[in-house]
């Protein structure tokens, strides 16, 4: 079944239509129009699957797509131009050109936490790069997956862009197919499975994974603002955000004051949503039970309420969590935020360094030396100074992990780069043929030594 699909896509790809930049731009326009037309349905589906409010769904799922599509359409002609490069003296007479070529058939595997954004954002890159695409949305958000499928079926021929729905088995069967490139967003564990499957056919991959992303609050930070931005970044989508702060390290001198601000901000931003039943729910019973078990791994100092029927857990702060608890070994991925204090910057740095490389890192400080120190001494995918999450939502910054948190990056120009191959061509002159490379005598050798000093 997938063999047929890939053959049809291969045939379509070889017709060469997708190489035309106008075609690509047109298809991006189609995507934007289709999302606009089905915006209401997408939001309804997100409400059913995750209890996302219309406002949150628009801000975090839909709006970034409109921005990304407009940005891509605006810059695509420039990005896709062949780049002329210089030739060194050893290549006298020749010219170099770098073409950005589509990979061909691409596979996009998406997760459930931002099921609309994380299916369509890579697709923008796939279209911009001139590829065909197969999209496998998450089975855990079936209503959203259904609308994504309908929307793309209404907009494109399946020989160009096709949605395949299904769970692990479907994903595994797709991974056996001879795609030319795989873009995966999901957990570290499944990322390893994807990379292993891709390695069997030497298929290049981009892996957008997760991990434990720390937020550090220095004593020079504006505590009220730090608290507000950490509360927002952590508790939107019930903490089910790949770049949500996973835990906070706060300087012990400002800890009490920071916690007071944080509790206040949590109330201001989320208590109304909890009361009105519009706070997002945990995606499944399994994920819900896993998070509930974490509540026993520390002292709950705020929140800790839950509703089994609706799968809702209120924004929660914990203290006294041991670093050996499961909660501190796995990505939390829910509305629980453990708080730790530190005395010296070295201490905070070594705590973070001793753990797998985070996808995101956040430093809150007015002291610029402190900002630089944390940013440069720690490895991580990307992050913010004095904010959380927002680095993900700009097409001007490459977004991706490092080490355990992922391989490669995308958004804006970087999506175009991810979904294309750089084909280097040396165009040699035929007006003359320098004899030096053919000669093996001493004179030639001494000339070569002069050139390659
Ligand atoms: P997941 O890894 O369980 O699933 C992701 C996708 O892989 C789904 O489509 C699923 O059907 C498929 N899949 C699951 N098991 C598979 C297997 N054994 N073989 C092949 N395919 C398989 O991830 P999730 O639970 O959907 O999403 C949450 C995770 O994703 C978190 O770790 C989060 O940090 C990460 N994430 C990362 C980003 C990012 O941009 N870096 C964004 C969102 C989520």
UniProtKB/TrEMBL annotation:
This is Aldehyde dehydrogenase. Keywords: Oxidoreductase. It comes from Halalkalibacter alkalisediminis. It holds the Pfam family Aldedh. Residues 23-425 form the Aldehyde dehydrogenase domain. The keyword Transferase does not apply. Belongs to the aldehyde dehydrogenase family. The active site is at 208.
């Amino acid at each position: 079944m997938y063999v047929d699909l890939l053959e049809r896509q291969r045939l379509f790809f070889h017709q060469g239509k997708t190489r035309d930049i106008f075609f690509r731009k047109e298809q991006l326009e189609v995507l934007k129009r289709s999302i606009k037309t089905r915006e209401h349905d997408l939001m309804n589906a997100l409400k059913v699957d995750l209890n996302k409010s219309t406002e949150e769904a628009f801000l975090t799922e839909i709006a970034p797509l409109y921005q990304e599509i407009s940005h891509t359409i605006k810059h695509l002609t420039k990005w896709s131009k062949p780049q002329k490069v210089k030739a060194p003296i050893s290549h006298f007479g020749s010219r170099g050109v770098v073409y950005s070529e589509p990979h061909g058939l691409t596979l996009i595997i998406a997760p459930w936490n931002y099921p609309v954004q994380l299916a369509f954002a890579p697709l923008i890159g796939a279209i911009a790069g001139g590829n065909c695409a197969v999209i496998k949305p998450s089975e855990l958000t079936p209503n959203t997956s259904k609308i994504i499928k309908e929307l793309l079926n209404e907009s494109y021929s399946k020989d160009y862009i096709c949605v395949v729905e299904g769970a692990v088995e479907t994903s595994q069967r797709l991974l056996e197919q001879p795609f030319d490139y795989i873009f995966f967003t999901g957990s570290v564990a499944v990322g390893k499975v994807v990379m292993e499957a891709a390695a069997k056919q030497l298929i290049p991959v981009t892996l957008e994974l997760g991990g434990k992303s720390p937020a550090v609050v220095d004593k020079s930070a504006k505590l009220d603002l730090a608290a507000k931005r950490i509360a927002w970044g952590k508790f939107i989508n019930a903490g089910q955000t790949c770049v949500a702060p996973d835990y906070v390290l706060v300087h012990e001198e400002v800890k009490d004051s920071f916690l007071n601000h944080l509790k206040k901000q949590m109330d201001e931003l989320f208590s109304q949503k909890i009361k009105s039943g519009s706070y997002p729910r945990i995606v499944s019973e399994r994920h819900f039970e896993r998070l509930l078990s974490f509540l026993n791994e520390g002292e709950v100092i705020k929140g800790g309420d839950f509703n089994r029927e609706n799968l809702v857990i209120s924004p929660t702060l914990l203290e006294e969590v041991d670093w050996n608890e499961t909660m501190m070994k796995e990505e939390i991925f829910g509305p629980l935020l453990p708080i730790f204090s530190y005395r010296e910057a070295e201490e905070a740095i070594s705590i973070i360094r001793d753990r797998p490389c985070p996808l995101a890192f956040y430093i809150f400080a007015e002291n610029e030396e402190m900002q630089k120190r944390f940013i440069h001494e720690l490895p991580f995918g990307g992050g913010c100074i004095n904010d959380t999450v927002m680095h993900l939502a700009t097409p001007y910054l490459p977004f991706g992990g490092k080490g355990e948190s992922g391989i490669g990056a995308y958004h804006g120009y970087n999506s175009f780069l991810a979904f294309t191959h750089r084909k280097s061509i040396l165009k040699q002159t035929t007006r003359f043929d320098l004899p030096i490379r053919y000669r093996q005598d001493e004179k030639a050798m001494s000339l070569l030594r002069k050139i390659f000093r």
